[in-house]
Structures are given as structure tokens and as C-alpha cells.
Amino acid sequence: FHPIFTPELLDASQLLGLALTLQNPVRAKLLLKLNSSESASELARNLHNDPQRWLRLQDSELLLYVQPPEIQRQGTNLELRFSVPENSTRLLLERIA
Question: DSSP string spanning 70-86?
């Protein structure tokens, strides 16, 4: 089993969900539940300011997004929406399979 997400993202979240729409372009929705609203605000800020640190495939230089994600926060939950590059999609699907 190959990891998908970075350890930083996994450690920051209490629960994580990923949905992919396999059309062209591939769209992703990443749902994160954090321990507190403060943690959610901080992670949203970090994702906005430095998405390449958080949204890349583990053990790879491939980013999970084409453009920085749209981020919505509601309490302790974050929802990120973004298009996934084709080469990242291939590797992501290989790792899920």
C-alpha cells in the first residue's frame, strides 16, 4: 500500500474523505474534520498560503491540484474542491487500486 496524502495533512485532521469525479478535467473534493474550529481556521489559512506543502502526493513531487483549491470552512470541517492534474490522477488511482 502506497500512501496518498502527506503526513502533515493526515496528522492535522481527525477524519478525511476524498471524492473524485473522473471526467476531464478530474475534480476532487477533500473533506477534513479537525479537532477544533481554531485548528480548522489555521489549517484553512495554511492550505490557502502554502497549498503545495499540504496537497501533494506522498513520496512524490506531484501536486494534487491544477490551481489552488477552493476552501470552505464550517465549524471544525473543511471542504476543498480542486481539479487534479492528469499525471497526479494516474498515480492517485494506482495507489488506490
Answer: EEEEETTEEEEEEEE-H
Task: Look at the pTM and tell me if it is higher than 0.70.
Answer: yes
- pLDDT 10s digits, 33-81: 999 999 999 999 999 999 999 999 999 999 999 999 999 999 999 999 9
* Beta sheet of 26-33, edge-to-edge order: 15-21, 26-33, 77-84, 70-74
| Residues present in the chain in total | 97
